[in-house]
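Students often ask why we bother predicting the structure of a whole assembly rather than each chain alone. The short answer is interfaces. A chain on its own may look different once its partners are present, and contacts between molecules only exist in the joint model. In this exercise we take two input lines together and write out one structure for the complete complex. Read the inputs first and try to guess which parts will touch.
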Amino acid sequence: MEHLKTAIDYAKDARGIVTLTIDMPGQATNTMNEVFREAYRAVVERIEAERNDITGIILTSGKPTFFAGGDLKSLLSADDAAALFARAEATKVPMRRLEKLGKPVVAAINGTALGGGFELALACHARFAVNDAALQLGLPEASLGLIPGAGGIVRLVRLLGLEAAVPLIVDGTVFGPERALQLKLLTGLALDKEQLIEKARQWILENVTSEQPWDRKDFRIPGSTSNAAAPLAWLRTAPMLLMKKHRQRYPAAEAAMSAAIEGAAVDFDTASRIESRYLANVAVGGVAKNMIRTFFFQMNEIKSRKSRPDGIPAAKFGRVGILGAGLMGRGIAQVCAQRGIPVVLKDVSAEQAGKAKSQIESNLAKQVAKSGLSAERMQTALALITPSAEASDLAGSELLIEAVFEDRKLKAEVTRGSEPYLSTGGIFASNTSTLPITGLAQASARPENFVGLHFFSPVDRMPLVEVIKGARTSLDTLARAYDFVQQVGKIPIVVNDSRGFFTSRVFGTFTREGGAMLAEGVDPAEIENAAVWVGMPVGPLAVMDETSLSLAWSVRLQTIADLRAEGRSAPEHPHWAVIDKMVNVLKRPGRAGGGGFYDYPEGGKKRLWPGLKEHFPPSAKRIPPQDLGDRFLFIQAIEAVRCIEEKVVESPRDANIGAVLGIGYPRWTGGPLQYIDMIGARKFVQRASDLAGNYGDRFVPPALLMQVAESNGPFCA
Amino acid sequence: MAEAMIFDAIRTPRGKGRRDGALYEVGPVQLLAGLMQELERRTHLDTAEINDVLIGCVQPYAEQGGVIAKTAALAARWDWKGAGLQLNRYCGSGLDAVNLAAQKIRSGWDDLVVTGGVESMSRMGIGAAPSVRDHQPRLSFDLKMIPQGVSADLLATLDGRTREDVDRYAFRSQQLAAQARDEGRFDESLVPVRDLNGMVLLASDEAIRYDATLEGLAKLKPSFAEMGEFGGFDVIAQSKYPKLEQIRHVHTAGNSSGIVDGAALMLIGSEAKGRQLGLKPRARVIATAALGVEPTIMLTGPAPVTQIALGKAGLNFDDIDLFEVNEAFASVVLRFLDDTNVPIEKVNVNGGAIALGHPLGATGCMLVGTLLDELERRKLKRGVATLCAADGMGVATVIERI
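Now the answer. The structure tokens for the assembled complex follow.
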């Protein structure tokens, strides 16, 4: 006889306590799909039928995690809002019935419960969780362009009030059991699964009947006043601050806030319907598709090492040496130490190295003060950092990371001087942001063990690392470098050696476009605003000031020289005339040099230099605002396509994740190639051709893009 | 077609809109009822002849709730035969009440209408009650509205006004208001507010700052900088005006309209009715207009709406002798002057809301009354009253002295 495993196991004990163990067959995690919906409906029906023999219900999971959340695959393909609305409503019915039955229902959270999983727990009258630091709770839907749609908004608002609940939902905050307890979202903690179930049982026996606070007659939403669901001051500022933060590019954030506030003015069940409508509305939208595709599916592929060479055993690094204790060097040392890897931080003098360690210390102290790092963990990390001026201290390093100035000669010296101390089979990485790895590897005794590891600043906060293959880098080295990046908790993308690698190369097109606009006579404030309103974190003129106009100019001169040596000419761009004028004529080299496109008054906010109007006179021609924003997004997307064409990056996921995490390409697009898919390759090509006609050949779609448009296919499968 | 004749216009003095203001203890219904009794007395009015009472009131909740026009009329013991109506077009309400009254008379379907406005800002502060947007943030997301103070600063930035420009205008308002008050130019229409025993609570506008100086004005903190910079409103304004690097916050309590309590009334009717009741017409309303402008900049209505009203009367700006342009914020009047090229000597000649205060629902009616008094004093012929209003609206009225 076939023994069919059901999704939810129903077990009643001698005291009438029913334990529901969710363990969906054929799935690594429990999700809110059709199987679950059907199983939950059936189980609630059964409980209602047997209610007279039931004391209470425990809800737990048979998997290592409690419940993962919504069925993202089906959400990705959903295009019918009415159907999604019906589905959301159907999911909620058994949850609501169980909640109102009058029997205590307790969630025994044995593992991570995010999104729909957390919503299931919120629908219980009590919640206990195992006190495991790795256990995550929360409603992270907003980070994928969605909103909680299984009652999470409605219930969280009624548990915590609008002021406390809305940020958790809009920011998609994820937290651990201790924090959840602090927030009063958990009834208690347990040491392990056994104690968890016991506590749940105990609670049921002590709470013979149960009713949610919001089903009581005199219920008021916490924080509500006599004439509004929250203080008017909050109601009037929260939406504005949201608009300021997200520049109206994130429908989910606005939908979450709307569902929460609109729902707070009506009864529970009406609020629940409003929530379902807003979910249906955002889920069928392009931004949700973008974010799900990139930040769930593509990110998972990266995390599960799809871009890492197969068949090479996983590497774990026990000792790392960093050469150069500047901003990047000490940042890398800090993240290594925080992940428990002993690290030697070497510089030219003991004083320099010591100073660098002090700077790491004050950096960590800030984390203790502001973001909940424990003083103990800070000391543990510091103890793992050894400042040094002696190359011999590097002995035994399994990985050496060179992070000195962008100077070939210096890097070569440092490489030759430290490589002898690498342990057998150890690998050598350069943190260069501009110099091709293959060239730098020439200084190495073992170029097959030489690789690029391009970190981003500030290292402790930027999650991305470009892993760069030189011409002779072995697959083994690549795999182990990939492993190192994951070991320090960062996200690796694999890049083939070339000028500017991936991120710098793509980002350069953004800043150059800003320069081109200035040359055309576009108002500089309008340039900066257009970039920020399309979702870039900072305007191109401000960025160029920060990264130094004079540096950009000298890199340009070097590039021209290098290419001439290869018998090639450097590509022209209207931006260079602007930089030339700023640096060489107007003597405004950038922020560090006393001013660039902006003035930087002492103790005040930066202001656009008034001289820009005179030297880059406003054009009478009116450029449609839409064109400005599109130019910023399109030019970077086109460059990303070129990078795929030239195999600088080999998969769209690396391009998407790399652009979003490394250079601030707006999250709502899902990355440059996902952006092309959102618009549709054919429409993108058409628009790009328009832009080329009006603004320059650099917008002419590359051949690969034309091919994709021809076949009408998506870029990202 | 019956013409709309203005027979009389009176107002209370404006009390400070705070708990220590002289009119705080009076309350809006009494403020209006007291004025109504005075109107009845001085025009020897048989209140049974009144067809309707139109009162502008911008915060019609709680103490100003219901239909305050009818409540006050009943409280003033007027004959219950007259109807009552409360209307709201934000700051324009008092002028809209006048315009609506004029239109009713011209239509021939009403013969005698009392119109005006009231606002007790000491009792009902701006924004005290929840509004639509508070319950539906989607409206904020879609409409991108900003508070009027930030709009005023946006306007000043777009027009290149410096802090000195707006303070200088404010100083003028204070000086002219003080002069007008000292010369008794308001005396004809000003009705002291009394308590139930007849004791005077307030006889003249108490918000005027005799001690105003340019230096003192320069010291005041910008009122809308914090909400603009930290509340996100500057960024929202930039979404509509992307050529702005930042909003210059130049408006302060000293160069924005004052918060005050006050009420005003006007008696409007047909010529025939006036003859029947022995009322002598002082002026006729010859045109009215209302329009909408871009809601984020909000405050640019006065010039275009005046243009429309003048067009309806077959006139242009040169034909007008005096203008009352509500001083919601200094930059509003400065923009009007730029847009119309009207010489400043014709505008707000007895000061304005910066000095006198702006009792929201009443101001529009007060402006017409002040205008009329001054046209009579100077023996001039035509005047325009105009105000900007929130959500991007404007109202105007053209009157012609008999």
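Check your guess against this: DSSP finds 29 helices and 21 strands in chain A.
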